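Hi R.,

Quick one: here's the SGNH/GDSL hydrolase family protein sequence you asked about.
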Amino acid sequence: MKILGLGHSHIVAIAEGCYELQHQGATIGGAPLSSRFVYLLDPAITPTLLDEEDGQTLNPRLSEIIAQEGADFGLLSIQGNEHIALSITQPFERIDFILGEESALPLAEGATLLTEAAVRETLRDRMAETIAILAALRRATRMPLYCLSPPPPLPDCQIKAYPKEFFRKAVDADRLSPEIFRYKVWRLACQLYRESCAAQNIVFVEVPPAFIAPPGLLIREAWGADATHANPSFGKAMVEKVIGMVEASRALVA
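And here's the predicted structure, written out as tokens:
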């Protein structure tokens, strides 16, 4: 069975994990696993979305690739850093919010409390392009699509080791958000992915619990080589989870 992977920077770890599975002889329902991964920032297929009179459409070259590949299902890793861009720093007046699905999580002492809805809608604005790309991909193909969650946030030590992703020179410790705040915003991002996927008949794939360490961070073994990305072990686990979902779905049909 053939996978077509489409995505931005997080797709790299997914692709490398998938290639490792192929090298190990992985199968789906007894059929050998094969794949092709397409980086959506490749100049040949950018911009991903084109503005037309009747709305946004997928780049024709990308639509052509999807049609030509004839894959059995697609793996999507669309954007995925909006949550960290929103949550990495704090204004000088500290802010926090209560995450409804995990309301017992601690709050930063002395922080101004925002509503979850306010944070969620700000994040939704940041994810507008992501949501639009998911909708356009769904319109472009009838094959099953699986949208992979971005990895959980990385800890302070990793951000301080790679500060230039977010700060000009060095980490401003006074403005770095608490790790638990970054986790909460990531959870809101997962909610928005989940809702957007449900609306488009796309399966959203959650991060396996084994890859989340207290207080809601990516486990050390899966850190990538910067402040935001995971390594191939995370990608492999996500692909394995999708394979299990695909096999379970096929078993139900059979």
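The first strand starts at residue 2 and ends at 7.

Cheers,
M.
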